[in-house]
Amino acid sequence: MSLILNPTASPALSPIAAMDAAHSVHPHTNLRRHLEQGPSIITRGDGIYVEDEAGQRYLEGAAGLWCASLGFGNARLGAVAAKVMTEIGYYHNFRSASTPAAAELSAKLASFAPPGMDKVLLQCSGSEANDTALKLVWYHWAGQGQPQRRKIISRLGAYHGTGAVTACLTAKANFHTGFGLPFDGFLYTGMPYHYRHAHPGEDEQAFSSRLAAELEAMIEREGPETIAAFWAEPVMGSGGAVVPPAGYFDKIQAVLRKYDILLVADEVICGFGRTGEMWGSETYGMTPDLICSAKSLSAAMVPISAVLIGERVFNGMMAQTDRLGSFAHGYTYGGHPMACAVAHEVLTIYEEMDLIGHVKSVEPLFLAGLAGLSDREYVGDASGVGLIGAVEIVTDRATKAMADAALMARIDAATRARGLIVRLVGNRVALSPPQIISAAEVQEMFERLGLALDEVFGAVR
Ligand SMILES: Cc1ncc(COP(=O)(O)O)c(C=O)c1O
């Protein structure tokens, strides 16, 4: 076997990086550049910090992919996983089979859920949760004698996963182009991003009213009897950590109620305190029929997700199985006992640490940190809620001209050089640190970000 794993890779790569470059295909990555430049290898983590193979430590201001709520490395969760792995390792949940871990997690998650949502369908990823929720929407309407209700409305800029169907809920061009997506029947309404999409002089309430009116016009145009559901994240994460304008969900929900359209809240990022309440739906007064949850559900330590099902849809599902015999849906690893036991322990930790109390205690500092950056000459918008937010980088505040990819790459490099990992979304620098972040660490995160931005802006000037 040749020791030269990838002849095109940079000779500076470590053996492990060269191995990765040669064989590991990476999502959301330029594949040719990866072959040539290789990966950044993260080897360990503790608290809100991770370390790369060269020993450089980073404050993980993005919690990985908005998910490592308890930070990195956790012996307590490791012990739980090892115990289940030793005692049973695997069992499924098809045809009424279950495990103590799956039963206990379902019950505990139901106790965390908003009122009236006490049914839990366990899956393995955020994309699966959204895909499943979509099938439940269709299943429900078919059972109600309205099988023509097939169309789904999501918002421009939305991210709900990358499966063939969830990529259609996702409304970002790069997830469609090249894949021949979206399929028919997926509609996209306006992005609730006031800074960029409000008309001149339009305040947040007026902007929300216009978006609701546009939604209503779309529903009327398409035929209300053909619309199955409206899909929304409370705060749009991969859309750029975009906080909805005042009044938005009240006005949108009024339209949905008028036409009897189901509301699905994608809480894959927002669930478990991210927005300062247990659910983003609570923060914004949403009353969804279904909730998709993942990420912080297990502190991202194991792959698991869940759809929380409200009474209306569950009754529809039961009526369907009365007619059809069984609920013909499920995954081999759905309700995996190791994942369930770890997630159950994570929820127990949330109770012990008073997750919501903690997020509320650091939220003012987090928001002050964002506000503190807002007077930089290159910062347009700076907004957030709970422990999620972003600053938008512009090259001209008056025209709101967006920073280009080259400038954003410099910001990425400067933050990393300062030992900080952030999430770049277009020209937005998003932050969503682990929910365990302390007050001192929030300050440290903003100090590092401020220094990195000043360095880049100083050089540009
Ligand atoms: C809001 C939202 N929904 C769905 C997903 C998809 O989750 P997964 O990557 O686990 O499939 C993500 C992933 O970032 C997300 O942010």
From TrEMBL:
The keyword Signal does not apply. GO terms for biological process: biotin biosynthetic process; gamma-aminobutyric acid metabolic process. One of its GO terms (molecular function) is adenosylmethionine-8-amino-7-oxononanoate transaminase activity. It comes from the Bacteria. InterPro entries: Aminotrans_3, Aminotrans_3_PPA_site, PyrdxlP-dep_Trfase, PyrdxlP-dep_Trfase_major, PyrdxlP-dep_Trfase_small. Its cofactor is pyridoxal 5'-phosphate. Keywords: Aminotransferase, Pyridoxal phosphate, Transferase. Pfam families: Aminotran_3 (PF00202). CDD domains: OAT_like. Belongs to the class-III pyridoxal-phosphate-dependent aminotransferase family. This is Aminotransferase class III-fold pyridoxal phosphate-dependent enzyme.
